[in-house]
Design goal:
single chain; mainly beta; Methylamine Dehydrogenase, Chain H; 5-stranded antiparallel beta sheet; 7% helix; globular
């Protein structure tokens, strides 16, 4: 066993010893203790007990100037929206007649948005991988009847009666624009559609005359646009030919000023729809099927000090080992540089909600003219890689900056429940998992930030989980001083 792996084991052991005293506490005493221990934790607000047996549609947290909203699945897997007035600890709730069944896991989805007039928009989705309750129907879209009021929602049709949206997601853009994107079709055969909301008529319309990404019945694109700090929309994606994760290929990139007109990294117009044959958008022509490309590890996007885009992704090296690569467009072509030197190979084939073996971050600007990238692997843990900005070559590998004590404490499971391993599902077992979910409205609050904590037993490849089950866990919001 190499020294790096040994140091990871020792560091983790020390961490668990430091916080093991918290394990025996009740959930309420845990939160109270946390608020008393760490001055950065201003307030702890319990939302509600939630389903903890496996991951089921990540909750949403939105904070406006006056209210805070949370969308989640409750302890019985019913879709729920909660609201509280800032300054109050009391929530009001609206439980919808939408219950998620076993056919969810990592492929469940819910999305919540607040438009410029204060109306709430809610959508939910599950993939039918396993048999379960007949709800929800294929099309789930609700809009609040009044601004900033969760007590009454109206069931709406987005644009067309025959839409069958998969992975429906709201996106808030600049100038109070609200978009809705989804996949029409399935994994390995689907198109990515974008709609835009008209707040005057309170109706949706197509953003484009065609899909943004068109799989032509042969594949689908995983990924999509995100708004950069430069005010430009940057789209990153890979194509997949079948539901098998191993058929991902073609790490790609394009950009847009308004989500409507698109161009390549060197400014050449891109005609819509974007397909696998669109010229000028492929970053790495050598990254094909079977080369380690996964949609879970191919979305890294950052910038250097000259605002040049850097794409970060994972693939196999010439020896067949899993590695992280960075790519930057220079002198008319993408300069691709290996960032890691790992000695393992992630067997990434399969369908369903696969476990994470590699996680890839975004390149960020560091000190003294360098760039920094934080990556994670199951075998080496977190690594901070310092890059030479001129060449993108790694010049130093260290541990990431120390995580604040309050954040480390939040990541310790409150529930003393051990998940059983299941080699057939690539599930290693162990303690409960904790996800810290960012506030999608935190820009409105300069001096504080809100974080939501969600504890569950992790992914189970979209399969039923045998009993015994963990008890419901408390969904919590934390007000943190910046």
């Amino acid at each position: 066993m190499c020294l790096k792996k040994i140091s990871i084991i020792i560091r983790n052991a020390v961490f668990w010893v430091l916080f093991v005293g918290l394990y025996g506490m009740t959930q309420s005493s845990f939160s109270q203790d946390l608020a008393e221990r760490y001055k950065d934790v201003i307030k702890v607000i319990d939302v509600a007990p939630v389903w903890s047996v496996h991951q089921i549609g990540s909750p949403y947290l939105i904070t406006s100037e006056e209210f805070q909203y949370v969308a989640y699945y409750d302890k019985d897997r019913y879709l729920t929206v909660a609201q509280r007035k800032l300054g109050s600890q009391e929530w009001t709730y609206n439980v919808f007649p939408v219950q998620m069944g076993w056919a969810t896991g990592g492929h469940a989805r819910l999305s919540l948005a607040l438009d410029r007039d204060g109306y709430l928009h809610l959508t939910a989705y599950r993939r039918g991988l396993q048999e379960g309750p007949p709800t929800p129907p294929e099309k789930i879209y609700y809009r609040s009847a009044k601004p900033h009021d969760i007590q009454e929602f109206e069931r709406k049709i987005m644009v067309l009666e025959d839409e069958g949206p998969e992975y429906p997601t709201f996106i808030n853009g600049p100038d109070d624009e609200l978009y809705f994107t989804y996949r029409q079709g399935g994994s390995g055969s689907g198109d990515q559609i974008f709609n835009v909301y008209d707040p005057v008529t309170k109706t949706w319309e197509r953003l484009h005359d065609t899909p943004l990404f068109d799989g032509r019945g042969e594949m689908n694109a995983y990924g999509g646009p995100r708004l950069g700090s430069d005010g430009i929309w940057h789209a990153t994606w890979v194509w997949r030919d079948t539901p098998d994760n191993a058929t991902n290929h073609s790490v790609s990139y394009a950009r847009s000023k308004d989500l409507r007109s698109w161009e390549t990294v060197d400014g050449k117009p891109v005609e819509l729809p974007i397909t696998s044959e669109t010229e000028g958008v492929v970053v790495d022509p050598d990254a094909g099927q079977g080369d380690g490309i996964s949609n879970m590890t191919s979305g890294g996007l950052g910038w250097d000090t000259e605002q040049r885009t850097i794409r970060t992704y994972h693939k196999f090296d010439e020896n067949g080992n899993s590695q992280v690569f960075n790519a930057r467009f220079e002198d008319g072509q993408w300069n691709i540089v290996q960032a890691t030197d790992w000695d393992f190979r992630w067997n990434y084939e399969g369908t369903g909600a696969l476990p994470s073996v590699v996680r890839v971050g975004n390149v960020e600007i560091g000190e003294a003219g360098t760039l920094e990238l934080v990556v994670w692997s199951q075998y080496y843990g977190d690594e901070r890689i310092v890059l030479d900005e001129n060449t993108l070559e790694p010049i130093e590998r260290t541990e990431p900056e120390e995580t604040p004590d309050w954040e480390r404490a939040l990541k310790v499971p409150e529930l003393d429940f051990q998940v059983e391993p299941n080699p057939e599902l690539l599930r290693e077992g162990g303690p409960m998992e904790v996800q810290l979910i960012e506030d999608r409205g935190e820009a409105l609050h300069e001096n504080v930030t809100y974080i939501m904590r969600w504890e569950n037993a992790g992914r189970n490849r979209d399969r039923p989980v045998p009993e015994p089950w963990p008890e419901p866990t408390m969904l919590r919001v934390y007000k943190i001083a910046k």
